[in-house]
Amino acid sequence: MCKPFWTRLPGWDSWHHEHCRRSTTSDYAPLVRELHRRAAILRQPVNGTFELTERCNLTCRMCYVYQAPSDRVRRATELSAAAWLEMAHHAVDNGMVFLLLTGGEVFLRPDFFELYTPLTRMGLVVTLFTNGTLITGTLAARLAEAPPGRTEITLYGATAATYEPSPAFPAVTPDVAQASTRWSTPRPARP
Ligand code: SF4
User: Fold this and answer.
1) What range defines the domain where residue 144 resides?
2) How far is 101 from 71, CA to CA, in rounded Å?
3) What pTM, to 2 d.p., does this model score?
């Protein structure tokens, strides 16, 4: 596993000891602020965004990233998981800590976990942008093995009319509710 750049900075051990020994989930924000502060001083590119695909299973009217899931031409131009990982290693070596994975719809990629799992093992804090419609129980369980730092499912309105003429709203809302239920299931306590 790569050692993140900030752990090599002068003073990191004492800051970490002081701020993280009582750490709980709610203490996460100060750590993020400190990482951004240090990265700004060092001019480190601490945030990255990988757009994994232009394909999406929905066609929201306001969107420009909605190529068909079956679009072979687009699929052929997408970088492989190995190519993204190589880029991620370079980015981590140059200071990336926070990585957003977005599309299109990221879960259309059959090799998603070939990329996602190694990224989490590199120490990156991964955020996922997804429309939520492809999150099955199996997929949620797989994500739970190494949960993303954050997952964002955007709803562009509260009614189907907002989404017209796209069928996206009726497609999204039940699946978002299901995904929410799956992910809010309490995890077993750590030993
Ligand atoms: S779900 Fe997201 S990526 Fe897909 S068409 Fe709608 S806004 Fe675009």
Assistant:
1) 47-184
2) 20
3) 0.79
